[in-house]
Fold each of these.
Amino acid sequence: MAKASSKKPRDIAPIDPMPARVDPCLATLVGKPPKGPDWAYEVKWDGYRLAVHIEPGRVRILTRGGYDWTERFPTIADDARRLAVKTAILDGEAVVLNDQGRSDFGMLQRALGRVPSAVEAGAIVFFAFDLLYLDGRDLRRLPLRERRRLLELLVAGREGAVRLSEEVQADGDAFFSVACEHGLEGIIAKHIEKPYRSGRGEWWQKITCKRRDSFVVVGFEPSTVPGHLGRLLLAARRGNELVYVGGCGTGWSHELSRELRNLLESIGTKEPAVSLRRKNAIFVEPALVAEVEYRTWTDDGKLRHASFKGIRERADDATVREPVV
């Protein structure tokens, strides 16, 4: 392979059409970090996967499912306009950091206004971890190490709403252990010699400290406390159908319990999305997806020790976990 030039792509490259949207590269869940000099590691952020498109005269912020959420992330859009580029596509994660510097999905949702909170939208930070397009050149064919070099030239050292997701060159097992000790969700391992490939593959791997997945909310059971939530009823995908996988009754505060109850009552339905009969169940339209942390699956395909972590709109093409039976 020829040695990469130190000149910027805008000076040497032919013009490649800028993609209107790029399907994201997705990490495959594995049990332990891969080993070898061709792997680099990053913190696994707990937020919304976004692509920031910088174009002449505008910035677009697209979700993983391709929805335009630019208006929901005004500080990220404003900061992206200040980058020294004409055109670019940055791949990364929008997060809100808590007092310990860890990304907090619940705080992010409050900042976006889905559930009322004192967390402001200005607290949202976009951590960029890949650069897919830059000033007329499609970078997806380049190896990750070269894409990262160009990304670092663009955003390293910034402290605004657009920042660099730091890459760590370390022993994967040691880094994973430290991440878990500090209460992080996990780590991501990436093969530095691979191009950017949309979809899920082995070139990006995720190693989580606890099991955590997305499940469709199909109903709830009221709390014994009037106006509050007792238990979420959850479903997962099996083929083209949804099947009931159990419930979740912990993970929310007293205030959030009331807010979630009001939210779910607003989308109530008499036609359940799954085959389920429960005496006190109130069914809802399958429009929301709950982020749930759990220990394992039971033999009959139900979640064990499930705890609520956040909620998002199903329309954002969230990945819904298939049950393990």
Amino acid sequence: MAPGGERRTIPLREVVLPHHCPRPVRMDVLSRTPYFAGLDPDALDGIDRRMRARTVRAHEHVYVAGEPADALYVVAQGAVSLAHVTEDGAPTLTDVLVPGELFGAMGTLGEPVHLQTATALVDTCALRIGQDDFRAVLRERPVVALRVLDDVAARLARAHDDIGGQSTDTVPQRVATALLRLAGKVGRDRPGEGLLLEVPLSRADLAALARTTPESVSRVMSGWKQQGVVASGRRWTAILDRDRLEQEARGSA
């Protein structure tokens, strides 16, 4: 409830995209993508020519876990969720990707099949580069090849840190960390409404990101709502007191 007792409602904006990503959008996104950032315009143009734009409607899969992996993607517009699929077929959210972020897999990088399912959260435009074209980029641009190696090493380090964090952090710390991470990617300031996370995430989604249970997330979020730290409704969340949430993430609240 908002101050004064009225019910707070924050509708998410509908995102309607064209069936292609115009060149200025593609070039801007590629210039911000970790593998390609800092390359000169001619190099970016060469990479852009090897890519194909694909429009993916909300809730449509980009690919499904278990399918052969032969391409990498860059989010150009919209947002994409990554999820593991459990043995009973239920998806477990692992990340939310926004423009400029890479996803996908390929045998060249040691992943012959997709280990996760990628799904558009909203209407999304993704840039796709196939395995042969990506190998050509690595040969032509050694700096990109080095960044790929650095990225693989960083992923291993993050996996190690996640294991440690899961065993020592409290549930409020993990939930706060997940919310702040999302805020850094999809947070939008809305005057009078706080920092709105503009992706449709359920309690189960947030629980998966925080590596806890939906019931635990509900208890933590209910307490924070009463204290004015967050506001939430059906598939939306807003951060009202970021300083307090940062304290929760550090375990110093």
